[in-house]
């Protein structure tokens, strides 16, 4: 299993990159949709500005979500765990998972991981289990192979 500090740092880096990308997209959208006040506005222009404001609000949701995920990652204790809880690294079905925030797959030290949030139904099904124990999920029995 990879170093948990390295895992945390990779997850922080990936989330920071997502946040920076969202901020850049948002700023670019605002630059491109800015009104040219040297020209007079008509009803069509006003309507377009209203639509632009709605689209700008749609950009803010992901920005806040990614900023919160990054903040949460900073606060999680990634110390060694003996049971499934936040900050644990868990192996089942021959795959590794990090209990922290939801992520797509990423590689750390040549091993593929995926982040699972505490709100995920699968986390709730395996919460507090230890290596060797079995949990039920969607009608399937799944054995926890490792917890760290």
Task: Describe the model.
The protein is 47% helix and 22% strand. The chain contains 3 helices and 6 strands. Helix 1 packs antiparallel against helix 2. The N and C termini lie close together (8 Å).
Short description:
This protein is an alpha+beta fold and 148 residues long. The chain has helices spanning 4-33, 43-75, 121-126, and strands at 89-92, 95-100, 106-108, 111-117, 134-137, 140-147. The protein is elongated and about 55 Å long.
Keywords for this entry:
148 residues; alpha+beta; six-stranded mixed β-sheet; 6 strands; 22% strand; elongated
Globular, elongated, flat, extended or rod-shaped: what is the shape? elongated
Average pLDDT taken over every residue: 84
Number of extended strands: 6
Straight-line N-to-C gap: 8 Å
Write the layout of secondary structure elements.
Layout: H1 4-33, H2 43-75, E1 89-92, E2 95-100, E3 106-108, E4 111-117, H3 121-126, E5 134-137, E6 140-147
Parallel strand pairs: 2-4
Antiparallel strand pairs: 1-2, 1-6, 3-4, 5-6
